[in-house]
Amino acid sequence: MLDTDTVVFVEVRYRLHADFGGALGSIDGRKQKRLALAANLFLLKESRWANHPCRFDVVALQGAGHAGQPLQWLKNAFEC
Fold first, then answer.
1. CATH number of the structural domain spanning residue 73
2. 59 CA to centre of own chain
3. pLDDT band, very low/low/confident/very high, at 33 (cuts 50, 70, 90)
4. Do the beta carbons of residue 14 and residue 22 sit within 8 Å?
5. Total domain count for the chain?
6. SS3 content of the chain, % helix, strand, coil (to 5)
7. This prediction's pTM
8. Whole-number Å distance between alpha carbons of 5 and 25
9. For the segment 40-60, what is each residue's pLDDT rounded down to a tens digit?
């Protein structure tokens, strides 16, 4: 997605239970590396975005029927 001139890579995570850190906790170092690799491949393929600033956001949902649960949007969740 674009936020002004910044290319934003958004990872959406859902977990039913908060075990093992829940939805936000599931973005470990290994997952961050995989997201960074995917972003790099995208930028190589779509060179028009290569000179724009980039960031990684995480949108997290937790619990069954999250109608009453707030959506967590963590902007600039990690850097590469």
1. 3.40.1350.10
2. 6
3. very high
4. no
5. 1
6. 35, 35, 30
7. 0.81
8. 29
9. 999 999 999 999 999 999 998
